[in-house]
Amino acid sequence: MPEPMRIIDEPAAMQQWALDQRRAGKSIGLVPTMGALHDGHLSLVKRCRAENDLCVVSIFVNPLQFGPSEDLDRYPRDLDRDEELLRLVETDVLFVPTPETMYPAGFSTRVDEKVLSKSLCGASRPGHFSGVATVVLKLFNLVQPTRAYFGQKDAQQARIILQMVRDLAVPVEIVILPIVREPDGLAMSSRNAYLDPDQRREAGMLYRALVWAQDAIDNGERSGDTIVQGIRDRIGAATTARIDYVSAVDFETLQEQPVLHGKVLIAVAVFFGTTRLIDNVIVRIPPTED
Ligand code: AMP
Questions:
Q1: Beta strand pairing call for 93-95 and 54-59
Q2: In 3D, which of 63, 82, 79 has the Cα closest to residue 71?
Q3: Which of 47, 248, 252, 258 has its CA 20 to 30 A from that of 120?
Q4: Long-range contacts from 221-224, C-beta under 8 angstroms, 24+ separation
Q5: Can 38 be counted among the known catalytic residues?
Q6: Is the CB of 190 inside a 6 Å radius of any atom of ligand 1?
Q7: Whose CA is nearest to atom 7 of ligand 1?
Q8: Atom from ligand 1 closest to the CA of residue 190
Q9: Considering 38, 41, 128, 261, which one is annotated as catalytic?
Q10: Distance CA 34, CA 36 (A)
Q11: Taking Cα atoms as reference points, which of 53, 57, 54 lies closest to residue 43?
């Protein structure tokens, strides 16, 4: 029988537990989340469970990463259900700090990645990735993970965390896992709950447009503009969504690629009303091409 799941809300208690476990030679996996858990989150937890002696899941709706006009207050929260789901997948520790304990009066430090944070979501959400990097580094210090698990769903976030870990020599292995989707292809997201039935139906088009792009590249298309325009046209024709961006970038630099090559991230962000959804695919173009 596994131990019952432990719930820790004090950062100091979390760090003490983690240091004790690491000193005892145990590996720790961490899955940082904002809760309202779905199968996408649980895929990360299952992998974390399988690869480490101990699995910690954090639930923290991080105020630092929300802009003033964003959905911090109405972000979906359902801690009872989340706890139940995490028990079912045999999580060892659920860490649920409060904003007051994570950011006590006088907190004044930020982690600010300066290059990769500027494009894509960073352009429309200034300060967002600094909020993410700051909380993730703090979570790493509190949970002392051997490995930390992130979804490709938030590809730019994952890329920035990889950069932070490399730049600041943080001793943690970053694992990035594939996007888990609904039957119609819509990427699972806590924010899908905001969609009304019409928007929910239309939202399936995001993935269909990305699959079109993937197929076009597989069939030899190499123009970034053609791919971006094709996605825009498909979303425009079939949905009421307002496009924030559609972009084809190099996954390493997150810079646009006029001629597609290497590891290409094709990313979209749209608004259905006030609900902002993101999705992406990563396409690998063989290096043998000239
Ligand atoms: P969030 O709670 O939205 O901050 O997400 C927590 C983690 O789960 C992040 O690393 C996300 O990239 C990941 N995640 C969210 N949705 C999915 C999904 N549909 N498939 C895989 N991972 C996901």
A1: parallel
A2: 63
A3: 47
A4: 221/260, 222/259, 222/260, 222/261, 222/285, 223/258, 223/259, 223/260, 224/248, 224/256, 224/257, 224/258, 224/259, 224/260
A5: no
A6: yes
A7: 33
A8: 3
A9: 41
A10: 7
A11: 57
Contacts 24+ apart (CB under 8 A), 72-77: 75/34, 75/36, 75/190, 76/35, 76/36, 76/190, 76/191, 76/193, 77/35, 77/36
3-class DSSP assignment, residue 233: helix
* pLDDT (average), residues 188-201: 97
Q: What is the largest CA-CA distance in the chain?
A: 58
Claim: this prediction has a pTM higher than 0.85: yes
Structure token digits, residue 18: 């983690």
What is the arithmetic mean of pLDDT over 243-257? 97
Segment 27-69, tens digit of pLDDT: 999 999 999 999 999 999 999 999 999 999 999 999 999 999 9
What mean pLDDT comes out for the span 156-174?
98
Alpha carbon distance 176, 32 (integer Å):
12
Query: Which tokens is 254 given?
Result: 């997150």
Tell me the CA–centroid distance for residue 154 and ligand 1, in Å: 7
CA distances from 252 to 21, 60, 84, 156, 212 (A): 34, 28, 38, 10, 23
What is d(CA 247, CA 256) in angstroms, rounded to the nearest whole number?
7
Q: Which residue has the tokens 């100091």?
A: 12
What is the CA(87)–ligand 1 centre distance, in A? Answer: 19
